[in-house]
Design goal:
Length: 373
């Protein structure tokens, strides 16, 4: 048995207008602490939580946030070293750092490599300044190219960028420019996510007031199909609904999620999945640290997945991937439903597997609902 780790770093310099992630700016922290003050203390708490995790060998570690690249390499390296000493790492363990392009220097990047990271993912989102402004992103688009070049020069062998499409005011030409800019970089992997407007965010309030207008479904579909077309032309194939990579550069950590393998989430608000039991931590970092240091549990709640839930999730996650679903895992009614979708060009029916076509990926959620109803 193996165990992946997700390490949550819940700090950002500024909150983006679309973000509802469990992350905090220094001004939002109740104790008014600065990032310099919280870093050591926070890592101590994460290391203490780690003592509760199973001692199984680790194939992937992913530091997400927030903005993990705000913290010094030596602090994040303490977590990697403790996991290595306690659990052991596989020979090809994938260790990913999420990074803001503005927050890295060549020296910092070399430090992350020395700490054990071998994969980095930059939050690019868009190459158009007016789109970044709507998203409240702080980085200069030119800094993405600089950051990617520095990461390659430092020695990173696997580099990814994250994009968001469907921002209010973004045209298809804007999106094409962003994709062409991203694919001109020295990257191995690209993630592209449709913008989801979360209740309670600044962006949601702007849309509700009528200050901004969301793009229509037809434009969103065109944007998705354009990603697939341009990525394939640049030697990156889709392997999951929102992810494309060069051969051998798929994100193995995320694949562990999609295959419902075991992982432990360290940090406030982090989710874990161990042998069909799912549990998640309390959200606020101050409360998280207080409980950790006083020996109390930081688990907020948990659930044991039923056999029906496991079956439905296997369909929901499996259909998102390039390998698709095995027909042996489906009942006759589900196979018939998919056959109908196949006749309409939304899925490809192979001898023993069912795969989504590009247009089928546009309605993946609808197909899943019909299969799991």
């Amino acid at each position: 048995m193996s165990l992946s780790f997700y390490v949550h770093i819940p700090y950002c310099i500024k909150r983006c207008g679309y973000c509802d992630f469990n992350t905090y700016t220094p001004s939002e922290l109740q104790d008014g602490a600065t990032l310099e003050i919280v870093s050591n203390d926070y890592i101590d708490a994460v290391l203490k939580e780690l003592e509760s995790a199973p001692q199984q060998i680790v194939p992937t570690i992913f530091f997400g946030g927030g903005t993990p690249s705000l913290l010094p390499a030596k602090d994040l390296g303490r977590v990697i070293q403790k996991i290595k000493d306690r659990n052991g790492l596989t020979d090809n363990c994938e260790i990913t750092l999420e990074a803001n392009p503005d927050s890295v220097t060549l020296e910092k990047l070399k430090g992350y490599l020395e700490a054990g990271f071998n994969r980095i993912s930059f939050g690019m989102q868009s190459a158009k300044p007016h789109v970044l402004a709507v998203l409240d992103r702080t980085h200069n688009p030119a800094n993405v190219e600089k950051a990617v070049s520095m990461a390659r020069a430092a020695g990173f062998k696997s580099i990814s960028v994250d994009l968001i499409y469907g921002t209010p005011g973004e045209s298809l030409d804007d999106w094409r420019h962003t994709l062409e800019s991203a694919l001109s970089l020295d990257i191995d992997h690209l993630s592209a996510y449709a913008l989801i407007v979360e209740t309670g965010t600044k962006l949601a309030a702007q849309i509700k007031r009528g200050d901004l207008e969301m793009p229509n479904d037809d434009l969103m579909a065109e944007m998705y199909l354009l990603i697939d077309q341009l990525c394939e032309a640049h030697g990156m194939s889709w392997y999951e609904l929102s992810n494309w990579s060069k051969p051998g550069h798929e994100c193995r950590h995320n694949i562990a999620y999609w295959k419902n393998q075991n992982w432990w989430g360290l940090g406030p608000g982090a989710h874990s999945h161990i042998d069909a039991k799912r549990f998640w931590n309390i959200k606020h970092p101050t409360t998280y640290k207080q409980r950790i240091f006083s020996g109390e549990t930081v688990i907020a709640d948990s659930e044991n997945l039923t056999s029906d839930q496991k079956s439905d999730e296997a369909i929901m996650l499996g259909i998102r991937m390039r390998e698709g679903l095995s027909t042996s895992d489906l009942n006759p009614s589900q196979v018939q439903t998919l056959t109908t979708y196949g006749e309409n060009g939304f899925v490809e029916m192979l001898q023993d597997r069912v795969l989504l076509t590009p247009t089928g990926r546009l309605i993946a959620d609808r197909i899943v609902r019909e299969l799991t109803f």
